[in-house]
Specification:
Length: 655
């Protein structure tokens, strides 16, 4: 099949020259004079390569050109070769970072010919060979289906069913492509993996990532792309579509195979991309940039840009040091293995460059390394952290059971990840995401912890959800936010054990106060009651208004059921006292029902229904009508009546 090459330039003479070079190769040139004519020139048909000027008018620079080409579906993933008059290294490197594949001088015909040779080899070689892919999907059938498509491209494919499995695989293997499902089990998101990889260093930083999702909404797509995904595909995934994007993404990372693809981490210990691995071989052989460019059919600017990334990845400061590192890496042998055994299995110079916090503890659970990002998050200097226990971060908000469950996971699965509340040196408590992995082996264990401050993310989420998640009158969480937090508590309880309680509080006085004193007065009274209830709960508890005078409280991390029952009785007593409203005494007349997860319900609906049945059975012992001073608390395990129904425990004044 003939290649279709798009030739864009404001100069007719250069367009004709490019078109002639393309025809001489037996390819089909598609000619356009600028971005305005792009759609008309393409005619809705895809192209295999774009040759473009770096500037069309005074208002269109090379960034505009690259961005426009990457937004267009027909050119989003094809190689883009920029032809520039300016020989500035800065311009070329910025163009490559912006998404250009190659940068050549306008009249470097020999360089273009060499690149055409390399492009022709890629075009005729068919499917990528020697690449390795990871598929993350909690549906094993779907994962196997996508793996077969990639295997049809000649790729070796690993499958992971959870976020933890995928992270473990990425830590030990350098993948050329990842296919990630967004929605995973246990409230996990594939976007977490994408963000972690894009915040890392080494091979994973630039690995192409295709995200897939069965939810076809723009919000999920935008979130995935913002996280760092290369392509978003809706489910069900079409074989031709997945194969097309996989091939295009792999070709964009560089031509040729990754050497020695048996074990990605062992064969490529410095985390280089495909093209960087090829450049590394020639650097180790002592070739200068110009000769490397000629040998690979790329521009010398591309070589220099990749070398800059390679210096950063392996901690080298110049070509001589890089060449020495590459030669040592290539020799291997017993001496290298012995040296490796004596060293901790992490590289401080590389970790120092991470923008995300990392610290490492030894077998005695003492910190032996902390990078500058951890110091910024915690407020402790790196020197202060060395030799200390991570317990200095303890906020006091988590029970001993929480940490025992964490230790069990580390001993059995050799990893743990989740949300945690930590304390800074200043005493401020903040939310964080913590991911802990075993390094080395059981005989010489080190644990690496990745720590990220979630404060700003939660603030943004709370600001964005304030209207949708709050009750208009009281400012308390509404039903939607209550259910969202309940899902989190259920997932946490299933993961770490334990349980939580749900209280249902019904205030019969609300409608009565509205009839007697008017809706505005009743609303002010209800708002006052809501504030009073909130002061009786812990900061970690959630009190939500779900109806006119109905509240639901979510009580996580309860050590004993008796604590939930005692709180219910305390609230019933509190709400049985007369309160002043516009100069008139009103007794709230509340009734409180309580239920416990998982014994009395597997989800929030069941728990509310269970507690609600106890509320409706609650009858004041003195016979007064509800709202006239009676308060009852429905508790599972209360005495049964003649028909076998559970009765409520009345408030003190009702008994």
């Amino acid at each position: 099949m003939q290649a279709r090459i798009l030739c864009l330039d404001r100069s007719a003479s250069i367009r004709n020259l490019l078109a002639e070079l393309v025809r001489r190769r037996g390819w089909t040139p598609i000619v356009g004079d600028g971005l305005a004519s792009l759609a008309a020139a393409l005619g809705g048909e895809p192209v295999d390569l774009v040759l473009s000027a770096a500037r069309f008018t005074r208002d269109d620079d090379y960034l505009c050109v690259v961005e426009a080409l990457r937004r267009c579906p027909e050119t989003a993933l094809v190689p883009v070769v920029l032809l520039v008059a300016d020989e500035s290294d800065t311009l070329a490197k910025e163009a490559l970072r912006a998404g250009a594949t190659e940068v050549f001088r306008r009249h470097d015909v020999d360089g273009l010919e060499r690149y055409f040779d390399a492009f022709a080899r890629e075009k005729t070689s068919g499917a990528p060979v020697g690449g390795r892919a990871l598929v993350l999907d909690d549906d094993t059938a779907v994962a196997a289906y996508m793996a077969r498509i990639l295997e049809g491209l000649g790729m070796a494919v690993d499958c992971a069913g959870s976020l933890d499995d995928a992270l473990e695989s990425v830590l030990v293997t350098a993948y050329d492509l990842l296919v990630v499902d967004i929605v995973l089990g246990e409230s996990q998101s594939g976007n977490q993996l994408v963000r972690l990889l894009r915040q890392s260093i080494g091979h994973a930083l630039a690995t192409p990532i295709i995200v897939v999702s069965g939810f076809h909404d723009e919000a999920r797509k935008l979130d995935a792309l913002r996280a760092g995904a290369s392509v978003y595909l809706p489910k069900p995934v079409k074989p031709d579509e997945l194969a097309f994007f996989a091939q295009k993404l792999l070709l964009r990372t560089g031509s040729g195979e990754t050497p020695n693809p048996v074990d990605g981490q062992a064969a490529n210990p410095l985390g280089f991309s495909r093209r960087e691995a090829m450049i590394a071989e020639l650097v180790a052989a002592g070739l200068p940039d110009k000769n490397i460019a000629e040998r690979l059919g790329i521009s010398f600017w591309t070589v220099r840009s990749h070398l800059t990334n390679m210096f950063r990845k392996c901690g080298a400061i110049n070509r001589v040091e890089l060449a020495l590192l590459l030669r040592r890496s290539a020799t291997g042998g017993g001496a290298r293995a012995a040296a490796k055994a004596e060293m901790p299995p992490f590289s401080p110079p590389m970790l120092d460059q991470l923008q995300i916090g990392v610290f490492v503890v030894d077998r005695n659970r003492l910190i032996v390394y902390a990078n500058p990002a951890v110091a910024e998050v915690t407020g402790y200097s790196c020197e202060e952290l060395l030799g200390r226990s991570p317990r200095i971060f303890d906020s006091g908000r988590h029970s001993p059971d929480f940490f025992r469950a964490m230790q069990r996971d580390l001993e059995t699965a050799q990893s743990w990840s989740g949300e945690i509340w930590n304390r800074r040196k200043s005493g401020e408590v903040y939310p964080a995401w913590l991911d802990i992995r075993l390094l080395g082996d059981a005989d010489a264990p080190y644990y690496m912890a990745v720590l990220s401050d979630e404060t700003e993310r939660l603030r943004e989420k709370e600001r964005g959800d304030a209207t949708a998640m709050a009750d208009d009158l009281t400012g308390l969480p509404n039903r939607r936010l209550l259910f969202d937090r309940a899902q989190q508590e259920i997932a946490r309880a299933k993961r770490h054990g334990g349980g939580f309680a749900v209280l249902v509080i019904e205030l019969d006085c609300y409608q009565e106060a509205a009839r007697r004193l008017g809706r505005a007065v009743a609303d002010r009274f209800l708002k006052h009651l809501a504030g009073m209830l909130r002061t009786r709960l812990r900061e970690s508890d959630t009190l939500a208004r779900v109806g006119g005078g109905e509240f639901v409280a979510l009580l996580p991390d309860l050590k004993e059921r008796s604590a939930g029952e005692a709180l219910a009785e305390g609230l019933a007593t509190l709400l049985d006292q007369p309160l002043a409203c516009e100069g008139q005494p009103i007794t709230p007349g509340a009734r409180v029902g309580v239920s416990f997860f998982p014994d009395q319900g597997s989800d929030l609906e069941e728990l509310i229904a269970h507690a609600g049945r106890a509320v409706r059975r609650a009858t004041p012992a003195d016979g007064r009508p509800a709202g006239a001073g009676a308060a009852g608390q429905g508790v599972e395990g209360a005495p049964a009546d003649a028909e076998g129904n559970k009765t409520a425990v009345p408030g003190p004044q009702g008994g």
